[in-house]
């Protein structure tokens, strides 16, 4: 295994010159010298001792990310974006999941801090405000992703969920639907869910359609709860002609619930889901969705954190808001009486 001495000898320079290049300090160094050192590093496949470097710099070149539910396939695309941006900047990534448990979220934050990560990206459960205030007071760099908790202000990347929900409901209204159901997981302290419900209500109100609370179903965050909610909706005397699912995990349960209730999509019930994946067009029927820019969310969150870590002065927290896209497929048609 090559050492820094081998690199210095091959490049014909001192070890301190090699160290300067490894640390990105090219000031007062000629282009020729820098290139000789870089060539020697590549030819010898030299890898610096990351532990020794981190002890010297007091940096580990690693960031941590804590997700609320790693089983949700939405996060795999977000992670790709985070990792791409980290690797592009020479950083490693440590991943953990809170499972929507505030206590586990707190444990993960403290564990990653103890492992000396240089900063954190947090898709928060919406609790632990005291812990985040302490991180802010310590000037420990962190950014929020997808969710805006109450009381803590820091750099954050979010999606315009009100817009996404409004677009979905407006499309259904334009098709002639007036009885439109919505399914959500518990909304307490979960800004995306609160915003999607708000967008749903805004769109109905803008079109003069009264909000029927019997069509608003808050599901337990457990398998099968969406199927139960759909069954309850479709058992109403004046059942919905369309359903809006606001979560990846609920999308398939809505389709399953409609089928189990003896109805067909879109003949009897139109459906629009949230989040999009390569397999969604392969469903029967292909599902219309509100697609979030998951990969871009990951890139933006990592970029915000890396910039924050490099900043020498305090900067006003930045909120990056990305727009979703409504993708219409074959799961929506006008209600039967209008065909």
Please give a structural write-up.
Helix content is 43%, strand content 15%. The model has no long low-confidence stretch (mean pLDDT 92). The chain has helices spanning 4-11, 15-22, 31-44, 50-57, 74-88, 102-114, 129-137, 161-174, 191-206, 225-234, 248-260, 294-310; strands at 62-67, 92-97, 120-122, 142-145, 156-159, 180-184, 216-218, 242-245, 270-274, 288-291, 319-322, 325-327. The chain has a six-stranded parallel β-sheet, sandwiched between helices. Residues 2-57 form the HTH lacI-type domain. Pfam families: LacI (PF00356), Peripla_BP_1 (PF00532).
CATH architecture of the largest domain: 3-Layer(aba) Sandwich
Q: Helical stretch count?
A: 12
| Strand order, sheet with most strands | 2-1-3-4-5-11
Q: Please report the total strand number as a whole number.
A: 12
Name the average pLDDT.
92
Q: What can be said about the biggest beta sheet?
A: 6 strands, parallel
Structural class: alpha/beta
Helix and strand succession?
A: HHHHEHEHEHEEHEHEHEHEEHEE
The CATH topology of the largest domain is what?
Rossmann fold
Write a short abstract of this structure.
The chain has 339 residues and is α/β, with parallel strands linked by helices. It has twelve helices and twelve strands. The strands form two sheets. Strands 2-1-3-4-5-11 form a six-stranded parallel beta sheet, sandwiched between helices. It has a six-stranded mixed beta sheet with strand order 7-6-8-9-10-12, sandwiched between helices.
């Amino acid at each position: 295994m090559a050492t820094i001495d081998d690199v210095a000898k091959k490049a014909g320079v001192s070890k301190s010159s090699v160290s300067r290049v490894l640390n990105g300090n090219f000031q007062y160094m000629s282009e020729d010298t820098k290139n000789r050192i870089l060539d020697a590093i590549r030819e010898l496949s030299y890898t610096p001792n990351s532990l020794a470097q981190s002890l010297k710099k007091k940096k580990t070149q690693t960031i941590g990310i804590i997700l609320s539910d790693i089983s949700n396939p939405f996060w795999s695309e977000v992670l790709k974006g985070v990792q791409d941006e980290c690797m592009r900047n020479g950083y490693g990534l440590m991943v953990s999941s809170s499972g929507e448990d505030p206590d586990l979220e707190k444990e993960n934050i403290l564990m990653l801090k103890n492992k000396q990560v240089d900063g954190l990206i947090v898709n928060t459960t919406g609790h632990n405000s005291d812990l985040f205030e302490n991180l802010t007071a310590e000037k420990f760099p962190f950014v929020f992703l997808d969710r805006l908790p109450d009381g803590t202000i820091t750099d954050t990347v979010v999606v315009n969920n009100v817009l996404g929900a409004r677009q979905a409901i407006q499309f259904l209204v334009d098709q002639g639907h007036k009885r439109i159901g919505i399914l959500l997981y518990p909304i307490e302290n979960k800004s995306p869910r609160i915003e999607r419900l708000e967008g749903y209500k805004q769109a109905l109100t803008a079109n003069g359609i009264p909000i029927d609370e019997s069509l608003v179903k808050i599901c337990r965050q457990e398998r099968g709860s969406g199927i139960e909610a759909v069954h309850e909706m479709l058992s109403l005397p004046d059942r919905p002609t369309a359903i809006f699912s606001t979560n990846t995990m609920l999308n398939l349960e809505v389709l399953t619930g409609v089928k189990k209730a003896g109805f067909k999509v879109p003949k009897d019930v139109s459906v629009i889901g949230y989040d999009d994946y390569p397999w969604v067009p392969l469903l029967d029927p292909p599902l219309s969705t509100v697609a979030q820019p998951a990969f871009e969310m990951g890139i933006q969150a990592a970029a915000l954190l890396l910039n924050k870590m490099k900043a020498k002065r305090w900067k006003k927290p930045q909120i990056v808001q990305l727009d979703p896209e409504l993708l219409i497929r074959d799961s929506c048609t006008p209600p039967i009486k209008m065909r």
